[in-house]
Amino acid sequence: MQFTILSHAGLWVQHAGVSLVTDPWLWGSCYWRSWWNFPEAPPELINELQPDYIYITHLHWDHFHGPSLRHFHRETPILVPLVHTRRMVKDLQSLGFKNIIEIPHGGKIKLGEHLFLHSFQFGITVDSAVVITNGEITLLNANDCKLFGLPLQHIQKQFPQIDFVLRSFSSASAIPYCIEDYQQRFGEFRSAAQYMQEFTEFSLTVGAKYAIPFASNHCFLHRETQEFNATAVSPEALATYFNQISQERGLKTQCVLMPPGSSWSEAGGFQLREFDYQKADEYITYLQHKYHNTLEKQYSKEAQVKPDYSAFERYFRELLNALPPKLPRISKMTVLFHIHQQEHYYWLLDFRSRRITVLTEPITATLTIQVPALVINDCCRKRMFSTWGPSKRLWIRLAPEASWVDVRVFLSLLDAWENEYLPIWNHLRPRYVGIWLRRWREFVEAGRLAWRLRRGKLPVEALYRSPSAPTATSKLVNE
Protein backbone atom coordinates (compact mmCIF):
# COMPACT_ATOMS: atom_id res chain seq x y z
CA MET A 1 0.00 0.00 0.00
CA GLN A 2 0.99 3.59 -0.61
CA PHE A 3 -0.77 6.83 0.34
CA THR A 4 -0.12 10.46 -0.56
CA ILE A 5 -1.42 13.66 1.01
CA LEU A 6 -2.93 15.68 -1.83
CA SER A 7 -4.33 18.75 -0.09
CA HIS A 8 -6.18 20.02 2.98
CA ALA A 9 -8.21 16.78 3.36
CA GLY A 10 -7.38 15.10 0.06
CA LEU A 11 -5.87 11.63 0.39
CA TRP A 12 -4.71 9.30 -2.42
CA VAL A 13 -4.38 5.59 -1.59
CA GLN A 14 -2.88 3.07 -4.02
CA HIS A 15 -2.64 -0.71 -3.75
CA ALA A 16 -2.18 -3.49 -6.30
CA GLY A 17 -3.12 -1.31 -9.25
CA VAL A 18 -6.22 0.21 -7.60
CA SER A 19 -6.40 3.83 -6.42
CA LEU A 20 -8.79 5.77 -4.20
CA VAL A 21 -9.03 9.51 -3.55
CA THR A 22 -10.91 10.93 -0.56
CA ASP A 23 -12.31 14.47 -0.21
CA PRO A 24 -10.58 16.02 -3.24
CA TRP A 25 -10.40 19.76 -2.76
CA LEU A 26 -7.34 20.01 -4.98
CA TRP A 27 -7.07 23.65 -6.06
CA GLY A 28 -8.74 27.01 -5.82
CA SER A 29 -10.72 28.19 -2.84
CA CYS A 30 -13.92 27.32 -1.03
CA TYR A 31 -16.44 29.10 1.19
CA TRP A 32 -16.70 32.27 -0.93
CA ARG A 33 -12.94 32.71 -1.35
CA SER A 34 -12.39 32.40 2.40
CA TRP A 35 -10.43 29.11 2.59
CA TRP A 36 -7.35 28.19 0.54
CA ASN A 37 -5.10 25.14 0.65
CA PHE A 38 -2.08 25.65 2.87
CA PRO A 39 0.34 24.72 1.52
CA GLU A 40 -0.80 24.01 -2.01
CA ALA A 41 -0.07 20.63 -3.55
CA PRO A 42 2.52 20.34 -6.34
CA PRO A 43 0.58 20.80 -9.62
CA GLU A 44 2.24 17.77 -11.21
CA LEU A 45 0.75 15.60 -8.49
CA ILE A 46 -2.87 16.47 -9.17
CA ASN A 47 -3.08 17.50 -12.84
CA GLU A 48 -3.27 13.95 -14.20
CA LEU A 49 -4.96 12.38 -11.19
CA GLN A 50 -7.71 9.93 -12.23
CA PRO A 51 -8.47 7.44 -9.43
CA ASP A 52 -10.56 4.28 -9.69
CA TYR A 53 -12.75 5.43 -6.77
CA ILE A 54 -13.56 8.64 -4.91
CA TYR A 55 -14.90 8.72 -1.35
CA ILE A 56 -16.54 11.85 0.05
CA THR A 57 -16.91 11.99 3.82
CA HIS A 58 -19.55 14.75 4.05
CA LEU A 59 -21.11 17.77 2.36
CA HIS A 60 -18.91 20.62 3.59
CA TRP A 61 -17.27 22.32 0.62
CA ASP A 62 -13.69 21.69 1.76
CA HIS A 63 -14.54 17.97 1.33
CA PHE A 64 -17.24 18.09 -1.33
CA HIS A 65 -15.56 20.56 -3.69
CA GLY A 66 -17.47 20.95 -6.95
CA PRO A 67 -14.67 22.58 -9.03
CA SER A 68 -12.27 19.76 -8.11
CA LEU A 69 -14.84 17.01 -8.71
CA ARG A 70 -15.41 18.33 -12.24
CA HIS A 71 -11.79 17.36 -12.97
CA PHE A 72 -12.61 13.64 -12.78
CA HIS A 73 -14.22 11.32 -15.30
CA ARG A 74 -17.97 11.17 -14.72
CA GLU A 75 -17.87 7.36 -14.88
CA THR A 76 -15.68 7.23 -11.75
CA PRO A 77 -17.52 5.41 -8.95
CA ILE A 78 -18.26 7.85 -6.11
CA LEU A 79 -18.61 6.38 -2.62
CA VAL A 80 -20.59 8.27 0.03
CA PRO A 81 -21.97 7.41 3.48
CA LEU A 82 -25.62 6.34 3.51
CA VAL A 83 -27.25 9.12 5.52
CA HIS A 84 -30.79 10.39 6.03
CA THR A 85 -30.70 12.96 3.24
CA ARG A 86 -29.88 12.04 -0.35
CA ARG A 87 -28.49 15.54 -0.89
CA MET A 88 -24.95 14.30 -1.66
CA VAL A 89 -26.28 11.82 -4.20
CA LYS A 90 -28.40 14.47 -5.93
CA ASP A 91 -25.58 17.02 -6.00
CA LEU A 92 -23.20 14.45 -7.49
CA GLN A 93 -25.79 13.56 -10.10
CA SER A 94 -26.12 17.24 -10.98
CA LEU A 95 -22.35 17.24 -11.65
CA GLY A 96 -22.82 14.34 -14.09
CA PHE A 97 -21.65 11.41 -11.97
CA LYS A 98 -23.68 8.27 -12.65
CA ASN A 99 -22.14 5.55 -10.47
CA ILE A 100 -22.81 6.63 -6.87
CA ILE A 101 -22.64 4.04 -4.11
CA GLU A 102 -24.05 4.71 -0.62
CA ILE A 103 -22.31 2.78 2.16
CA PRO A 104 -24.25 2.18 5.40
CA HIS A 105 -22.73 2.88 8.80
CA GLY A 106 -20.26 0.07 9.54
CA GLY A 107 -20.51 -1.19 5.99
CA LYS A 108 -17.65 -1.99 3.65
CA ILE A 109 -16.87 -2.20 -0.05
CA LYS A 110 -14.17 -4.16 -1.83
CA LEU A 111 -12.04 -1.87 -3.98
CA GLY A 112 -9.52 -4.39 -5.27
CA GLU A 113 -7.50 -7.44 -4.33
CA HIS A 114 -7.44 -7.51 -0.50
CA LEU A 115 -8.26 -3.78 -0.44
CA PHE A 116 -11.39 -2.77 1.51
CA LEU A 117 -12.98 0.51 2.55
CA HIS A 118 -15.17 0.72 5.70
CA SER A 119 -17.40 3.73 6.44
CA PHE A 120 -18.47 4.93 9.90
CA GLN A 121 -20.88 7.82 10.53
CA PHE A 122 -21.02 10.15 13.51
CA GLY A 123 -22.66 13.38 14.64
CA ILE A 124 -25.58 15.64 13.74
CA THR A 125 -23.75 17.02 10.69
CA VAL A 126 -23.47 13.42 9.44
CA ASP A 127 -19.73 13.32 9.07
CA SER A 128 -18.02 10.02 8.40
CA ALA A 129 -14.68 8.38 9.08
CA VAL A 130 -13.19 5.79 6.78
CA VAL A 131 -10.95 2.81 7.39
CA ILE A 132 -8.88 1.58 4.44
CA THR A 133 -7.04 -1.72 4.80
CA ASN A 134 -5.31 -4.38 2.71
CA GLY A 135 -5.12 -6.81 5.62
CA GLU A 136 -1.57 -5.79 6.46
CA ILE A 137 -1.70 -1.99 6.61
CA THR A 138 -4.70 -0.24 8.14
CA LEU A 139 -5.37 3.48 7.84
CA LEU A 140 -8.05 5.39 9.79
CA ASN A 141 -8.98 8.68 8.13
CA ALA A 142 -11.10 10.41 10.78
CA ASN A 143 -10.77 13.86 9.10
CA ASP A 144 -13.39 16.08 10.83
CA CYS A 145 -15.25 13.16 12.43
CA LYS A 146 -14.95 13.67 16.20
CA LEU A 147 -15.58 10.07 17.27
CA PHE A 148 -15.33 9.13 20.93
CA GLY A 149 -16.73 6.59 23.37
CA LEU A 150 -18.67 3.61 22.03
CA PRO A 151 -18.57 4.71 18.35
CA LEU A 152 -14.77 4.90 18.50
CA GLN A 153 -14.55 1.61 20.40
CA HIS A 154 -16.65 0.04 17.63
CA ILE A 155 -13.85 0.82 15.17
CA GLN A 156 -11.12 -0.24 17.57
CA LYS A 157 -12.68 -3.66 18.19
CA GLN A 158 -12.97 -4.26 14.46
CA PHE A 159 -9.46 -2.94 13.75
CA PRO A 160 -7.27 -3.50 16.82
CA GLN A 161 -4.06 -2.79 14.89
CA ILE A 162 -4.24 0.61 13.16
CA ASP A 163 -1.05 1.83 11.51
CA PHE A 164 -1.99 5.41 10.60
CA VAL A 165 -4.60 7.79 11.98
CA LEU A 166 -5.36 11.05 10.17
CA ARG A 167 -7.47 13.69 11.89
CA SER A 168 -8.20 17.42 11.91
CA PHE A 169 -6.45 19.54 14.52
CA SER A 170 -7.67 23.13 14.22
CA SER A 171 -10.86 25.18 14.19
CA ALA A 172 -13.49 24.84 11.45
CA SER A 173 -16.22 26.56 13.44
CA ALA A 174 -17.52 30.09 13.84
CA ILE A 175 -17.74 29.47 17.60
CA PRO A 176 -16.38 31.37 19.45
CA TYR A 177 -14.16 33.22 16.97
CA CYS A 178 -16.91 35.05 15.08
CA ILE A 179 -18.61 36.32 18.25
CA GLU A 180 -18.03 39.93 19.23
CA ASP A 181 -15.50 40.25 22.10
CA TYR A 182 -15.09 36.46 22.25
CA GLN A 183 -11.59 36.77 23.73
CA GLN A 184 -12.96 38.60 26.76
CA ARG A 185 -16.12 36.49 27.11
CA PHE A 186 -15.03 33.04 25.91
CA GLY A 187 -11.25 33.23 25.78
CA GLU A 188 -10.79 29.80 27.35
CA PHE A 189 -13.22 28.07 25.00
CA ARG A 190 -11.73 26.04 22.12
CA SER A 191 -8.19 27.32 22.51
CA ALA A 192 -5.30 26.05 20.38
CA ALA A 193 -4.10 24.05 23.39
CA GLN A 194 -7.44 22.26 23.62
CA TYR A 195 -7.34 21.31 19.94
CA MET A 196 -3.84 19.90 20.40
CA GLN A 197 -4.90 17.91 23.44
CA GLU A 198 -7.98 16.54 21.69
CA PHE A 199 -5.95 15.41 18.66
CA THR A 200 -3.41 13.78 20.97
CA GLU A 201 -5.86 11.94 23.21
CA PHE A 202 -7.84 10.68 20.22
CA SER A 203 -4.77 9.41 18.39
CA LEU A 204 -3.26 7.77 21.46
CA THR A 205 -6.59 6.09 22.20
CA VAL A 206 -6.58 4.64 18.69
CA GLY A 207 -3.07 3.35 19.35
CA ALA A 208 -1.83 3.87 15.81
CA LYS A 209 1.85 3.72 14.99
CA TYR A 210 1.69 7.14 13.38
CA ALA A 211 -0.61 10.13 13.88
CA ILE A 212 -0.88 12.49 10.90
CA PRO A 213 -2.30 16.02 11.41
CA PHE A 214 -4.82 16.33 8.59
CA ALA A 215 -7.90 18.16 7.29
CA SER A 216 -6.79 21.48 8.82
CA ASN A 217 -4.28 22.40 6.12
CA HIS A 218 -5.94 25.65 5.07
CA CYS A 219 -5.50 29.39 5.48
CA PHE A 220 -7.74 32.45 5.09
CA LEU A 221 -7.16 34.95 2.28
CA HIS A 222 -10.45 36.87 2.00
CA ARG A 223 -10.10 40.30 3.59
CA GLU A 224 -13.03 39.56 5.92
CA THR A 225 -11.42 36.39 7.29
CA GLN A 226 -7.65 37.02 7.17
CA GLU A 227 -7.63 37.69 10.90
CA PHE A 228 -8.54 34.06 11.60
CA ASN A 229 -5.11 32.88 10.43
CA ALA A 230 -3.99 33.84 13.93
CA THR A 231 -6.34 31.24 15.46
CA ALA A 232 -4.88 28.30 13.53
CA VAL A 233 -3.04 25.58 15.43
CA SER A 234 0.63 25.32 14.49
CA PRO A 235 1.35 21.83 13.10
CA GLU A 236 4.88 22.00 14.46
CA ALA A 237 3.66 22.92 17.95
CA LEU A 238 1.15 20.07 17.74
CA ALA A 239 3.81 17.53 16.74
CA THR A 240 6.11 18.69 19.55
CA TYR A 241 3.33 18.45 22.13
CA PHE A 242 2.10 15.08 20.85
CA ASN A 243 5.50 13.42 20.80
CA GLN A 244 6.28 14.78 24.26
CA ILE A 245 3.08 13.27 25.71
CA SER A 246 3.60 9.98 23.89
CA GLN A 247 7.14 9.73 25.24
CA GLU A 248 6.10 10.65 28.79
CA ARG A 249 3.57 7.79 28.75
CA GLY A 250 6.07 5.30 27.40
CA LEU A 251 4.17 4.87 24.13
CA LYS A 252 5.51 4.36 20.62
CA THR A 253 2.95 6.39 18.68
CA GLN A 254 4.68 9.15 16.74
CA CYS A 255 3.24 12.30 15.19
CA VAL A 256 4.59 12.92 11.69
CA LEU A 257 3.93 16.08 9.68
CA MET A 258 3.03 15.31 6.07
CA PRO A 259 2.54 18.54 4.07
CA PRO A 260 0.62 18.04 0.80
CA GLY A 261 2.86 16.18 -1.63
CA SER A 262 4.22 13.89 1.09
CA SER A 263 3.73 10.13 0.87
CA TRP A 264 4.34 6.80 2.59
CA SER A 265 4.76 3.35 1.06
CA GLU A 266 5.46 -0.13 2.35
CA ALA A 267 8.57 -0.27 0.19
CA GLY A 268 10.07 3.15 0.86
CA GLY A 269 8.54 4.42 4.09
CA PHE A 270 8.00 8.18 4.46
CA GLN A 271 8.82 10.58 1.63
CA LEU A 272 8.20 13.99 3.18
CA ARG A 273 7.87 17.22 1.23
CA GLU A 274 9.74 20.06 2.87
CA PHE A 275 7.70 22.96 4.19
CA ASP A 276 8.71 25.48 6.84
CA TYR A 277 5.64 26.12 9.01
CA GLN A 278 7.59 28.76 10.92
CA LYS A 279 7.35 30.88 7.78
CA ALA A 280 3.58 30.52 7.55
CA ASP A 281 3.03 34.29 7.40
CA GLU A 282 5.41 34.60 4.46
CA TYR A 283 3.62 31.82 2.58
CA ILE A 284 0.21 33.39 3.22
CA THR A 285 1.54 36.71 1.88
CA TYR A 286 2.78 34.85 -1.21
CA LEU A 287 -0.68 33.34 -1.73
CA GLN A 288 -2.33 36.76 -1.31
CA HIS A 289 -0.15 38.12 -4.11
CA LYS A 290 -0.69 35.04 -6.26
CA TYR A 291 -4.47 35.27 -6.01
CA HIS A 292 -4.76 39.06 -5.80
CA ASN A 293 -6.77 39.37 -9.02
CA THR A 294 -9.09 36.51 -8.04
CA LEU A 295 -9.79 38.11 -4.68
CA GLU A 296 -10.37 41.54 -6.19
CA LYS A 297 -12.91 40.06 -8.62
CA GLN A 298 -14.65 38.46 -5.65
CA TYR A 299 -14.83 41.78 -3.77
CA SER A 300 -16.25 43.49 -6.85
CA LYS A 301 -18.80 40.72 -7.33
CA GLU A 302 -19.91 40.85 -3.70
CA ALA A 303 -20.33 44.64 -3.84
CA GLN A 304 -22.88 44.31 -6.65
CA VAL A 305 -25.06 41.58 -5.16
CA LYS A 306 -28.44 42.54 -3.69
CA PRO A 307 -29.95 40.47 -0.86
CA ASP A 308 -32.71 38.07 -1.93
CA TYR A 309 -35.44 38.38 0.68
CA SER A 310 -37.77 35.99 -1.13
CA ALA A 311 -35.18 33.19 -0.89
CA PHE A 312 -34.59 34.03 2.78
CA GLU A 313 -38.31 34.08 3.58
CA ARG A 314 -38.93 30.82 1.74
CA TYR A 315 -36.08 28.98 3.50
CA PHE A 316 -37.02 30.06 7.01
CA ARG A 317 -40.78 29.81 6.48
CA GLU A 318 -40.35 26.15 5.59
CA LEU A 319 -38.09 25.67 8.63
CA LEU A 320 -40.55 27.35 11.01
CA ASN A 321 -43.40 25.20 9.66
CA ALA A 322 -41.36 22.05 10.28
CA LEU A 323 -40.46 22.86 13.91
CA PRO A 324 -42.14 20.99 16.76
CA PRO A 325 -43.57 23.26 19.49
CA LYS A 326 -41.74 24.45 22.59
CA LEU A 327 -38.20 23.50 21.66
CA PRO A 328 -35.85 24.34 24.54
CA ARG A 329 -33.95 27.59 24.01
CA ILE A 330 -35.06 27.90 20.37
CA SER A 331 -38.67 28.77 21.25
CA LYS A 332 -37.50 31.93 23.06
CA MET A 333 -34.94 33.02 20.50
CA THR A 334 -34.86 35.96 18.09
CA VAL A 335 -32.25 36.24 15.35
CA LEU A 336 -31.62 39.53 13.54
CA PHE A 337 -29.83 39.20 10.20
CA HIS A 338 -27.92 42.35 9.30
CA ILE A 339 -27.07 42.16 5.62
CA HIS A 340 -24.38 44.69 4.91
CA GLN A 341 -24.03 46.07 1.40
CA GLN A 342 -23.95 49.64 0.16
CA GLU A 343 -27.24 49.78 2.06
CA HIS A 344 -28.16 48.01 5.30
CA TYR A 345 -30.94 45.43 5.54
CA TYR A 346 -32.43 43.99 8.73
CA TRP A 347 -34.46 40.78 8.67
CA LEU A 348 -35.82 39.43 11.94
CA LEU A 349 -36.43 35.75 12.57
CA ASP A 350 -38.66 35.40 15.65
CA PHE A 351 -39.02 31.82 16.89
CA ARG A 352 -41.36 32.95 19.70
CA SER A 353 -44.06 34.15 17.33
CA ARG A 354 -42.78 32.16 14.33
CA ARG A 355 -42.68 35.31 12.24
CA ILE A 356 -40.21 36.70 9.70
CA THR A 357 -40.13 40.50 9.54
CA VAL A 358 -38.34 43.17 7.52
CA LEU A 359 -37.12 46.03 9.74
CA THR A 360 -35.87 49.47 8.85
CA GLU A 361 -33.73 49.81 11.98
CA PRO A 362 -31.87 47.24 14.09
CA ILE A 363 -33.29 46.01 17.40
CA THR A 364 -31.78 43.97 20.20
CA ALA A 365 -32.15 40.25 19.46
CA THR A 366 -30.80 37.11 21.07
CA LEU A 367 -28.37 36.89 18.15
CA THR A 368 -27.51 39.65 15.69
CA ILE A 369 -25.64 38.19 12.74
CA GLN A 370 -23.94 40.36 10.16
CA VAL A 371 -23.42 38.65 6.80
CA PRO A 372 -22.73 39.69 3.17
CA ALA A 373 -25.61 39.53 0.70
CA LEU A 374 -23.84 37.03 -1.57
CA VAL A 375 -23.30 34.64 1.32
CA ILE A 376 -26.83 34.77 2.73
CA ASN A 377 -28.26 34.41 -0.77
CA ASP A 378 -26.21 31.28 -1.45
CA CYS A 379 -27.05 29.75 1.93
CA CYS A 380 -30.78 30.21 1.32
CA ARG A 381 -30.93 29.33 -2.37
CA LYS A 382 -28.65 26.29 -2.08
CA ARG A 383 -29.91 25.28 1.37
CA MET A 384 -26.32 25.17 2.59
CA PHE A 385 -26.12 27.04 5.89
CA SER A 386 -23.95 24.13 7.02
CA THR A 387 -21.11 25.80 5.09
CA TRP A 388 -21.69 29.17 6.74
CA GLY A 389 -20.00 28.50 10.08
CA PRO A 390 -16.80 27.00 8.65
CA SER A 391 -16.50 29.91 6.22
CA LYS A 392 -16.31 32.39 9.09
CA ARG A 393 -18.07 34.85 6.77
CA LEU A 394 -20.28 36.05 9.62
CA TRP A 395 -20.03 38.31 12.66
CA ILE A 396 -22.20 37.68 15.71
CA ARG A 397 -23.34 39.98 18.52
CA LEU A 398 -24.99 38.41 21.56
CA ALA A 399 -27.73 39.92 23.67
CA PRO A 400 -26.60 40.52 27.28
CA GLU A 401 -28.37 37.37 28.50
CA ALA A 402 -27.21 35.17 25.59
CA SER A 403 -24.11 32.98 25.31
CA TRP A 404 -22.17 30.99 22.73
CA VAL A 405 -24.55 28.10 23.47
CA ASP A 406 -27.35 30.04 21.72
CA VAL A 407 -25.16 30.28 18.62
CA ARG A 408 -24.50 26.55 18.78
CA VAL A 409 -28.19 25.75 19.17
CA PHE A 410 -29.17 27.96 16.23
CA LEU A 411 -26.52 26.59 13.87
CA SER A 412 -27.30 23.02 14.95
CA LEU A 413 -30.96 23.64 14.14
CA LEU A 414 -29.98 24.67 10.61
CA ASP A 415 -27.86 21.51 10.31
CA ALA A 416 -30.80 19.41 11.48
CA TRP A 417 -33.10 21.06 8.93
CA GLU A 418 -30.70 20.61 6.03
CA ASN A 419 -29.98 17.00 6.98
CA GLU A 420 -33.76 16.42 6.87
CA TYR A 421 -34.15 15.53 10.55
CA LEU A 422 -37.21 17.79 10.42
CA PRO A 423 -40.15 17.38 10.41
CA ILE A 424 -39.72 14.79 13.17
CA TRP A 425 -42.05 12.27 11.52
CA ASN A 426 -39.34 11.79 8.88
CA HIS A 427 -37.73 9.45 11.39
CA LEU A 428 -40.53 6.92 10.92
CA ARG A 429 -39.37 6.25 7.37
CA PRO A 430 -37.65 2.87 6.80
CA ARG A 431 -34.42 4.55 5.62
CA TYR A 432 -34.21 6.58 8.85
CA VAL A 433 -35.04 3.66 11.13
CA GLY A 434 -32.38 1.53 9.49
CA ILE A 435 -29.74 4.22 9.86
CA TRP A 436 -30.52 4.93 13.53
CA LEU A 437 -30.52 1.23 14.42
CA ARG A 438 -27.01 0.92 13.01
CA ARG A 439 -25.91 4.02 14.93
CA TRP A 440 -27.38 3.05 18.32
CA ARG A 441 -24.01 3.57 20.04
CA GLU A 442 -24.30 7.34 19.56
CA PHE A 443 -27.56 7.43 21.54
CA VAL A 444 -25.98 5.53 24.42
CA GLU A 445 -22.91 7.79 24.37
CA ALA A 446 -25.04 10.94 24.20
CA GLY A 447 -26.89 9.81 27.32
CA ARG A 448 -23.65 9.09 29.12
CA LEU A 449 -22.24 12.45 28.13
CA ALA A 450 -25.34 14.34 29.28
CA TRP A 451 -25.21 12.57 32.66
CA ARG A 452 -21.52 13.36 33.16
CA LEU A 453 -21.96 17.01 32.16
CA ARG A 454 -24.48 17.47 34.98
CA ARG A 455 -21.50 17.41 37.32
CA GLY A 456 -19.77 20.26 35.50
CA LYS A 457 -17.22 20.62 32.73
CA LEU A 458 -15.85 17.43 31.22
CA PRO A 459 -12.07 17.41 30.55
CA VAL A 460 -10.99 16.38 27.07
CA GLU A 461 -9.17 13.25 28.20
CA ALA A 462 -12.36 11.97 29.86
CA LEU A 463 -13.85 11.41 26.39
CA TYR A 464 -11.14 8.92 25.52
CA ARG A 465 -9.36 5.94 27.00
CA SER A 466 -5.84 6.72 25.94
CA PRO A 467 -3.09 4.78 27.73
CA SER A 468 -1.96 6.35 30.99
CA ALA A 469 -4.14 9.40 30.40
CA PRO A 470 -3.50 11.98 33.16
CA THR A 471 -6.24 13.15 35.47
CA ALA A 472 -5.43 16.78 34.67
CA THR A 473 -4.29 18.56 31.55
CA SER A 474 -0.56 18.65 30.93
CA LYS A 475 1.61 21.63 31.71
CA LEU A 476 1.80 22.65 28.06
CA VAL A 477 -1.97 22.76 27.69
CA ASN A 478 -2.32 24.91 30.80
CA GLU A 479 0.25 27.46 29.66
Textual characterization of the structure:
It contains 16 helices and 23 strands. It is an alpha/beta fold and about 475 residues long. The radius of gyration is 22 Å and the shape is globular. A hairpin with a 4-residue loop joins strand 4 (about 30) and strand 5 (about 35). The chain has an 8-stranded mixed beta sheet, covered by helices on one side.
**Rg, nearest Å:** 22 Å
Report how far apart the termini are: 40 Å
CATH superfamily caption of the largest domain: Ribonuclease Z/Hydroxyacylglutathione hydrolase-like
CATH topology of the largest domain: Metallo-beta-lactamase, Chain A
Summary tags:
8-stranded mixed beta sheet; globular; 32% helix; 16 helices; 479 residues; 7-stranded mixed beta sheet; Nonspecific Lipid-transfer Protein, Chain A; single chain; disordered C terminus; 2 domains; alpha/beta; Metallo-beta-lactamase, Chain A
Topology:
Elements: E1 2-5, E2 11-15, E3 18-22, E4 29-30, E5 35-37, H1 43-46, E6 53-55, H2 66-69, E7 78-81, H3 87-94, E8 100-103, E9 108-112, E10 115-122, E11 127-133, E12 138-143, H4 149-158, E13 164-167, H5 182-186, H6 192-206, E14 210-213, E15 218-220, H7 235-248, E16 254-255, E17 263-265, E18 269-271, H8 280-290, H9 292-304, H10 309-322, E19 334-340, E20 344-350, E21 355-359, E22 367-372, H11 373-381, H12 388-391, E23 395-398, H13 404-418, H14 430-438, H15 440-453, H16 475-478
Parallel strand pairs: 3-6, 6-7, 7-8, 12-13, 13-14, 14-16, 19-22
Antiparallel strand pairs: 1-2, 1-17, 2-3, 4-5, 5-15, 9-10, 10-11, 11-12, 17-18, 19-20, 20-21, 22-23
Helix pairs in contact: 6-7, 10-11
